[in-house]
Automatic annotation (TrEMBL):
GO biological process: enzyme-directed rRNA pseudouridine synthesis
Name of this protein: Pseudouridine synthase
Enzyme Commission number: 5.4.99.-
Family listed: Belongs to the pseudouridine synthase RsuA family.
Any GO CC annotation of this UniProt entry: cytosol
Gene Ontology molecular function, alphabetical: RNA binding; rRNA pseudouridine synthase activity
Keyword annotations from UniProtKB, A to Z: Isomerase, RNA-binding
Pfam family, one: S4
Native organism taxonomy: Bacteria, Bacillati, Actinomycetota, Actinomycetes, Micrococcales
Length: 274
């Protein structure tokens, strides 16, 4: 569709008060940076927008941005523009806390330049580096960090000794730890030498220090560990100690993931600490 007839075009928002019925959908999505109001109207007519899981095709639809969930072409949209989402490549030697009681280096140095008060989603232990999300979206942080949600994470570990194909198979088949059996979703040998090997592990478990414990259990203690991926987010070329805001595509993918089954996280649980 290329446009709309003047006679069928909806009234401007200034002509009809937003309250108490809510705010016009096209106005909200334009404010969220999705597209101009006219383009959003075209999306509505084409059936590309859903509100709370239901396709919307009427141009006069109003919503409550604080409670309604909207997606465009299946990708979730954040309607609250005050929310901020940051990817950090946490360096080693930094604890995943906003204020460490033992005065160790913490995450405050990476959040002080942001006006919003940001918090970390889950944890990485002090000697593990890699991808950590910082946000002021408490709902998203709670869901993604909850162990029941099972977000997929990818790690690269440098370990002692020469890892064999049999060891890789054992990691994916399952090994017994003190707190029960665990299996990697995927495991790959990236490189090996006489003294050390590089192993890539994909896991959705949120158990405490699970990567280190798994590799130690198969006889290859970890000497270096980095998280390269968290759900749909990839660390890419972001240097250690640097941060950046998520792109619109990354944010959409992350929100879509978090809304997939947000009902699993009704109460706080153990957060990951790799």
């Amino acid at each position: 569709m290329t446009g709309f007839h003047e006679g069928t075009h909806p009234m401007n928002d200034s002509e009809t008060p937003d309250a108490p019925e809510g705010i016009r959908l096209q106005k909200v999505l334009a404010a969220a940076g999705v597209a101009s109001r006219r383009v959003v109207e075209q999306y509505i007519v084409e059936g590309r927008i859903r509100v709370n899981g239901q396709t919307v095709t009427e141009l006069g639809r109003r919503i409550d941005p604080e409670t309604d969930k909207v997606d465009v072409d299946g990708t979730a949209i954040q309607l609250d523009v005050s929310k901020r989402y940051v990817m950090l490549n946490k360096p080693t030697g930094v604890v995943s806390s906003m204020r460490d009681e033992n005065n160790r280096p913490d995450l405050r140095r990476f959040t002080e330049d942001y006006e919003e008060r940001l918090y970390n989603v889950g944890r990485l232990d002090a000697e593990t580096s890699g991808l950590l999300i910082l946000t002021n979206d408490g709902e998203l942080a709670h869901v993604l960090a909850h162990p029941s949600f099972g977000v997929t994470k990818v790690y690269i570990a440098k370990v002692e000794g020469t890892v064999t194909a049999q060891t890789i198979a054992k990691l994916t088949k399952g090994i017994e730890l003190e707190d029960g059996e665990i299996a990697a979703d995927k495991a790959r040998l990236l490189d090996t030498s006489r003294d050390s090997s590089l192993v890539e592990l994909t896991l959705h478990s949120g158990r405490n220090r699970i990567v280190r414990r798994m590799l130690a259990a198969v006889g290859h203690p970890v000497t270096e560990l980095v998280r390269r991926q968290f759900g749909p987010l990839h660390l890419g070329t972001l240097p250690a100690g640097k941060s950046r805001e998520l792109s619109k595509i990354e944010l959409g993918a992350l929100l879509t993931l978090s809304r997939r089954d947000s009902g699993v996280a009704e109460a706080p649980g153990e957060q990951e600490n790799e």
